[in-house]
Structure formats: structure tokens, C-alpha cells
Amino acid sequence: MFGFSAWELAFVLVIILILFGVGKLPDIGSGMGKAMKNFKKATADADLDITNEKKSS
Length: 57
Description:
There is one protein chain. By secondary structure, the protein is mostly helical. Helix content is 82%, strand content 0%. It has helices at residues 6-20, 25-56. The longest helix has 32 residues, at 25-56. The radius of gyration is 18 Å and the shape is elongated. The model has no long low-confidence stretch (mean pLDDT 88).
């Protein structure tokens, strides 16, 4: 997965737990999910705009 081993992913997760604590993880996950959703929507809108520009030219 993305060139990372399971140990590397576990290490990153432990560091995140230490920095933010267990209570903040749902908020962080929710924020990341919303950001990904908005990014996908923005890229889809940009693709649609490009397609419409090509058709109108």
C-alpha cells in the first residue's frame, strides 16, 4: 500500500496517537474524509468545465 510496510504504517499510527491522543482521532478522520470528498468534487467539476470548454470551441 503506497510502498509502505505494515511496520511503517503502525509506527506512523503510534506517532499520531501520541501527538493527538485517542479522543481527537474521530475528528481528524472526519476532517480528512470531508477534505478528500471536497477534493474529488473539485477535480470532477474542473474536468466538467474543461469538457464543456472543448465542446463550445
